[in-house]
Amino acid sequence: MIASTLLLLLAVGSGVLPLKTVAMACLILTATFDALTWIFQLGNGTQWVGVTPAPSKRPLWS
Question: pTM for this one?
Answer without folding.
Answer: 0.60
